[in-house]
Specification:
heterodimer, A: 259 residues, Rossmann fold, 5-stranded parallel β-sheet, 37% helix, globular, B: 430 residues, alpha+beta, Cytochrome-c3 Hydrogenase, chain B, 43% helix
Chain lengths: 259, 430
Amino acid sequence: MPTLAVWKFASCDGCQLTLLDCEDELLTLAEQVQIAAFAEASSAVVAGPYDVSLVEGSITTPVDERRIKEIRAQSGVLVAIGACATAGGIQALRNFADVTEFASVVYARPDYIHTLATSTAASDHVTVDYELRGCPIDRGQLLDTLAALLVGRKPKLPAATVCTECKRSGVTCVTVAEGIPCLGPVTHAGCGALCPRHHRGCYGCFGPMATPNMGAVIPLLHRDGMSGDDVDRVFSTFNVTQFDAAREAAQSDGRPKPP
Amino acid sequence: MSSARSRTIRVGALTRVEGEGALHVEMRDGVPEVVELNIYEPPRFFEAFLRGRAYTEPPDITARICGICPVAYQVSACNAIEQACGVTLDPELIALRRLLYCGEWIHSHALHIYMLHAPDFLGAPDVIAVARDHREAVERGLSLKKAGNRLMELIGGRSIHPVNVRLGGFYSVPTRADLAPMAEQLRRALDDALACVEWVAAFDFPDLTVDHELLALRAERYAIEDGAIARSDGPAFGIAEFSDHVRETHVPHSTALHATLDGRRHLTGPLARYTLNHDTLSPLAREAATAAGLGSECRNPFRSIVVRAVEVVYAVQEALRIIENYQRPARPYVPVEARPGIGHGVSEAPRGLLYHRYEIDEAGLIKAAVIVPPTSQNQAAIEDDLARVVVADGGLDDAALTAMCERTIRNYDPCISCATHFLTLRVTRR
């Protein structure tokens, strides 16, 4: 039986929880694969190597820099799950600040904190075979990916935008109809256009698509009432590193860094 | 390595808990000398990077502290900021917020009962192994958990980090017709929840009676989305005085902080809620509790699984009640204008009282944020329980004693990602 391992780095546990949230499929899945290492769910740990490893969380400590390499060495296929593992997560806001100052705000003994100055994606350290985007990932995408790897096909991870998904599902465009600022035109697909379905503009929790037209979307955000600071902030959340890089690429003329 | 006189219990990586922690106990002549719950979950610095964010952002940002209880973070954050801005929600919106929160209680408690905790009572490593002998019970648990998740999806848009919550209410609100199929699913879930109480009540519980002070919210109905602070021993205090009473302090020989209530260890979560608020449970939930052998209070942490099951009965019934009385709110949210000042917000996360405090400046930006999660409050109680358990069960061999220590920690359903305020807690008793 193929083996599956689930690993955690700096994160909220929400993406690995997505696996336990597959209530209808979990017991069937457990008949098809051996869940060999999954600390949040099981006390039984089988030694590697593992056919598939799911990696949640970002790399923020020297120990974790080593651990991700060990996991890579033991894994046939390595799938990074969620914005922390694919982009460094919201904790990557430290990359644009002074982590020592951060530590002094939160901890009485900042000298005891062993942390890196940056929070980085798994792919900054090792080769990653597939990435499931999102904060959190989509349950359907996770199941499809596991099913694909089981039968030996490529997972379906469309590279379209939230805007495309939204149009296809027939949701009234919140920007066109009501002038609500929306990151859908530049955000990676996968959520099923959840926010517009709830009368909210997309806030980019799946990160930027491969070739986002930042130059076109930012003026629209301004038009619909966002200030320069509002725009900086909306791109500075769960996928801050990737949106920052996309904005940098679109316009490298000394724009202020995220807060 | 153990000898007759000295024994060391080590667990390198705790399992079936949320987050990363380790355990280290040293005993000499049957007396615990070191009880160390080592939390090595890496810090993420939420309170630092919240500074300078817009006053509207904490609900979405702090949800990311915990994937298992994001609604708790969203609601405590909303409560705090709405208080700072002088906004009170329409009653229909408060009811909808409570309904969403019921979904989180059902899902989170079902997760802990069936997937994390029950394996301890059945000698199994995980729920998959439990399902081999107890397929029907596990399927019932999954179905219960699913009902909680569907409720969160219906009201919040998704169950992990809901997208539909905003200051003052929601982005969109469901119609009565939208809620009707959910009521069907919840009616089935109520049967499952009652069966769940019966199932866990039959487990074999180790004896342990704790005397930690209890801290929970109290309200007219069983406290979930808001309430006044209640405690078992000392005088009650207002939410604005929370930080004066619940302090993160240095422990002797400790390299980290943990929270105490007026300088003493305290306990928050299911046992505290049940004991302080038993009278506000629904008659059905109280009846289920009595049938399961619970009195009007519960001070055995091993029985917390029964209390969680009773709370699931309550949450399912409460969700049904809210849906039955539901009138679609006239507006999806109350506008919340920024106002400089300080706001305090609390709610009952599945694991206990969750406190948020925000200071908002003239520009509507967060100047300072303080978050006190339940697990950091329960840290001292967990470690005290561990010290008792290693004495009481000193006759067990190392493997059995280690398992007992892990169970003692799991009783609290600790949420380590939430609580990385303390990195290593070391208590040495001489």
